[in-house]
Structure formats: structure tokens, C-alpha cells
Design a protein that fits this description.
Layout: H1 16-27, H2 30-50, H3 56-72, H4 86-98, H5 100-104, H6 112-148, E1 153-158, E2 161-167, H7 168-193, H8 212-218, H9 228-233, H10 236-262, E3 270-271, H11 290-314, H12 322-327, H13 330-352, E4 354-355, H14 357-366, H15 371-381, H16 386-402, H17 412-423, H18 431-438, H19 440-445, H20 455-498
Antiparallel strand pairs: 1-2, 3-4
Helix pairs in contact: 2-3, 2-6, 2-8, 2-20, 3-20, 6-7, 6-13, 6-20, 7-10, 7-20, 10-11, 10-13, 11-13, 15-16, 15-18, 16-17
């Protein structure tokens, strides 16, 4: 039996089951991580050469070898699960190109542990940038349609009961505001995790006089993690990101549930084009909200991935281990990929949903959601306490419902009768003022307190939100440009070394 291909400590070949069930599946992602591993290797070679830790001719050969591998791509590397993972397979191929002595010098002053930790941060950084970009796009769509539908009055609900009139644009402005917080959460994580673990080696640093700041700079990090144990042991930025994605998923599921309700035949407040609907195999009249169902269903999956990662990591020691740093992180990439898909579907929903303006207005006029405005009128014009006004309006609503009347059929006489019964005297309110209160359009116009649905208040909200969106988009673009510049500098430094 042949000995291990990667260790003289291990005298037996890796068991077929280990290769089949552990190492082979890990190698399936070799192509995806190939570029990140190449960048880590380039930064390490340049740093070793700059620090005088390897001879220039060795550094030049290594730099050329890594660049040549980059040119031919990951498919040129023969993947052998008996070599355990991506790094050993990469290293074996490099050694074939530049020789075992020179190729073996690449690993001076480092470990797979800090390589893997660095790759996770590089890859995680790109993932968060894409998520933030996608969120910005969804926010932009929400705000555009918030302005478009700023005066489309509809019932607002609490406890899924008609509550107060709002506008569809006001609802979308609320969606945009919540998504803005999701953007900020992910941005905060992105900024805090952009620190390099490279140079931490296994976990206890290295006796070689490496320059961690130089390799961090070459890879576009803002600095390096000072404590080498923490740098290797922790993937908290992944759990933090997954927590943010879980909050985001819970939110988009709530929005999807609103549309799910509004598009039912019974509500019929909003309609989607046929292009975003499904049908039934047996019931020809059906128009099924498949996108909304997908969004709601996938949110549970993303929350489950967070729980799985948390439970995997919680029982591990505070150091490097495969269960913490490999198994505990695998769900993040799936959660992030799924979140991007769901955000694009959410944007499709927000872009294509159209309120049935005439029906939403009629519902708001008839469903007693204007009742609070009537109570407010009694406080202002009849000098009642709000609680007294609440009791009177409640009695009026009850009377109207019992008579089969709608809210817009309430009269001054009905109000006076209820007032006489409740407080012992009529109110004699101005009939025109009563009509204005019971008119959902006028009702919304009056709600101009800060952040309210009134057009002047909503316009101010949208103006400020659009300004913040422009700022956020610009800042994320700057991040992209900074990383692109760092990547170009790394490439130039490696090419200069290879000459």
C-alpha cells in the first residue's frame, strides 16, 4: 500500500471512503476558488521577495509559474482527492512546472490555515459587494415606483384588518427604507471584515520576518488581523453576514405575503402581469403567484442555513478545525447565492406589480379605515378627549355596519345620535368637515407629519431616500474601484518579479 501523497507522517494511503465523501466533493469547487488562491499566492511571493525571505531567482520562477497557471486556468490542474484539497493539488501542479525545490519554497512562513482564512475573506468580500449592489438596485426600483404611485390611495392594514388609508407609494417607500437598513448592515460587515489573516500561519504566527502589512495591501485589505489565533479561528464575519441575510429574507417574505394577500380574488388590490404568474394543471381559471411563493419558501431555507452554521460552529474549540472553518461556513455561499436570486425576484415583483387604483380608492372609502380621522376631527373641533371621540366613532361604525352602510355613508345625524348616547349632547360638526374626514384622498393629504403618507411629507421622504441611495451606490462603486486597483497592482508586481 502506498503512503500518503502529502505527508510523511501518514504511512498509509487515504481510505477510498475519505476520498469519495470528503475530499472529492471539496475539489468540486476548485475552479471557483482558483483565482482567489492564485491571488493569495501572488501576494505571498511578492511579499517574500520584498522581505528578502527567498532569493530573487526563486521568487521570479514562482511568480512566472503562478502566472502561467493563471493563464491556462484551473482545468489544467489534475485534481487528485488523495492530495486532500485544492491547495495541495495546486502546489503539486506548480511543482511540476517549476521544480519541487523551488515550488516547495512558496509555503515559507504560512499554512493552509491562513490561506483558507484569507480566501474566505476575499471571496466573502466579493459576495457582499454583489449583495449590496443588488440591494441598491431593488431600493432604486422601490423608490421609483414609490414616486410613481405616491397618490394612489389604498387601505392600510393592521392585524390584516382595514386600519387607515395610505398610498401604494407610501408602502413602497417603507419597503425601500427597510432594505436600506439591510444594505447598511451588510456594508458594516464588509468594512469590518476587510482585514487580512495572511501571515498568521497555522495559528501561532511564524518565526520568519514576514511583512503582513505588505501582503494585506497587495490583496486590497484595509489592514491585517493582529492576533493570529483569532485570525485563524474566527469566521464570525460569515455568521454575521448570514444573520443579516436571515433578517433580509424574513423581511422580503413579509413583503411577499402582503402581495400574496393583495392579489387574491377576495382582495384584488394589486395585479401582476401574466409573465410572472403560473397556472394550474387542472383548473384553467388559475393565475398562481409562483414568484411570491418562491420568495416566501426560500426565506425559511436561508434562516435554516444560519441555524445549521451556528450549531456546527458552537461546539468547536477556539482554534482551527475542519468543522468550524469548512463545514461551518459552507452554508454561507449558498445563502448568499440564493439571496441574490431572491432579491432579483423581489425587484421583479416591485417593478411589475400594479395597484388597481379605482378599486383601492373605493375600498378605502367604504371599509371604515377613515374612522380615525373622524375621531381626530372631534378632538379638534368639539374639544373632546380622544378616548371620548373613540367611543363615539366606535358606536357610529357599529350602527353603520348593522345597517349595511359603508363608511362614506356616515352622516352628521348619526354622529350626533351616538354622541348624545355616549356623552349626553350632540357635537354639531360641520358636514363638509365630516365629508373631508371620510374621503380617503383628503384623509391621506392631511397626514403630513414627518414620515407620513401625505404628498408633501412623502415627497420629502423620497427625496432624502434617493439622496442616500445615490451616496450608497457611489460608495460601493468606490469599493469596487479600490479593489480593482489593488488587483492590478498585485498583477503588475507579480509580472515585474517574473521577468
Amino acid at each position: 500500500m502506498h503512503a500518503s501523497k502529502v505527508s510523511r507522517r501518514l504511512k498509509e494511503a487515504t481510505a477510498p471512503e475519505v476520498c469519495e465523501y470528503i475530499y472529492q466533493p471539496r475539489l468540486a469547487g476548485f475552479a471557483e476558488g482558483f483565482g482567489y488562491l492564485g491571488d493569495v499566492n501572488k501576494a505571498h511571493i511578492v511579499m517574500l521577495a520584498d522581505s528578502g525571505l527567498i532569493r530573487q531567482e526563486h521568487a521570479a520562477a514562482l511568480a512566472k509559474g503562478v502566472l502561467d497557471m493563471e493563464t491556462v486556468g484551473p482545468n489544467a490542474v489534475e485534481l487528485d482527492p488523495n492530495r486532500e484539497d485544492a491547495y495541495f493539488n495546486y502546489e503539486a501542479h506548480l511543482m511540476e512546472q517549476v521544480g519541487h525545490d523551488i515550488g516547495g519554497r512558496l509555503h515559507t512562513g504560512r499554512s493552509r490555515n491562513d490561506i483558507l482564512a484569507t480566501i474566505d475573506r476575499l471571496r466573502g468580500r466579493d459576495v457582499l459587494l454583489e449583495l449590496i449592489d443588488t440591494l441598491i438596485s431593488v431600493r432604486r426600483t422601490a423608490l421609483e415606483n414609490a414616486g410613481r404611485y405616491a397618490e394612489v390611495v389604498m387601505p392600510g392594514y393592521t392585524h390584516l384588518q382595514p386600519a387607515q388609508p395610505i398610498t401604494y407609494g407610501f408602502y413602497l417607500a417603507g419597503v425601500a427604507q427597510a432594505l436600506e437598513r439591510d444594505s447598511r448592515r451588510l456594508t458594516t460587515t464588509l468594512e469590518s471584515m476587510n482585514q487580512s489573516p495572511l501571515g498568521s500561519a497555522a495559528f501561532a504566527g511564524t518565526p520568519f520576518a514576514i511583512d503582513r502589512a505588505r501582503s494585506a495591501e497587495l490583496l486590497g485589505f484595509d489592514g491585517y488581523l493582529d492576533n493570529t489565533l483569532d485570525a485563524i479561528a474566527s469566521r464570525d464575519f460569515i455568521l454575521e453576514s448570514m444573520s443579516h441575510l436571515s433578517l433580509l429574507a424574513v423581511f422580503w417574505s413579509r413583503v411577499a405575503q402582503d402581495y400574496f394577500t393583495w392579489t387574491t380574488h377576495e382582495f384584488s388590490l394589486v395585479e401582476f402581469p401574466d409573465s410572472v404568474a403560473g397556472t394550474s394543471s387542472i383548473m384553467p381559471q388559475k393565475k398562481n403567484p409562483v414568484v411570491l411563493e418562491y420568495l416566501k419558501g426560500r426565506s425559511g431555507h436561508i434562516v435554516g442555513l444560519l441555524m445549521g452554521a451556528s450549531m456546527t460552529i458552537k461546539g468547536t474549540n477556539f482554534t482551527h478545525s475542519g468543522d468550524a472553518n469548512r463545514e461551518g461556513t459552507r452554508g454561507f455561499w449558498e445563502a448568499a447565492e440564493e439571496s441574490v436570486r431572491c432579491l432579483k425576484l423581489l425587484e421583479l415583483v416591485l417593478r411589475t406589480a400594479a395597484p388597481k387604483a379605482e378599486l383601492t380608492l373605493r375600498r378605502a372609502a367604504e371599509d371604515f379605515s377613515t374612522a380615525t380621522a373622524l375621531a381626530d376631527l372631534m378632538v379638534r373641533d368639539a374639544d373632546l378627549s380622544f378616548r371620548e371621540a373613540h367611543h363615539i366613532v366606535g358606536a357610529v361604525v357599529r350602527q353603520a355596519m348593522d345597517a349595511g352602510q359603508h363608511a362614506d355613508q356616515i352622516t352628521g345625524e348619526m354622529i350626533d345620535a351616538a354622541a348624545q348616547d355616549q356623552i349626553g349632547h350632540p357635537l354639531n360638526l360641520d358636514p363638509q368637515r365630516i365629508r373631508e374626514c371620510l374621503d380617503p384622498v383628503e384623509n391621506v393629504k392631511a397626514r403630513n407629519s414627518a414620515g407620513g403618507p401625505g404628498i408633501s411629507s412623502l415627497s420629502a421622504t423620497l427625496e432624502a431616500a434617493n439622496a442616500r441611495l445615490t451616496l450608497d451606490a457611489g460608495q460601493n462603486q468606490v469599493r469596487h474601484q479600490r479593489l480593482a486597483s489593488a488587483k492590478a497592482r498585485l498583477q503588475n508586481a507579480t509580472q515585474a518579479l517574473a521577468r
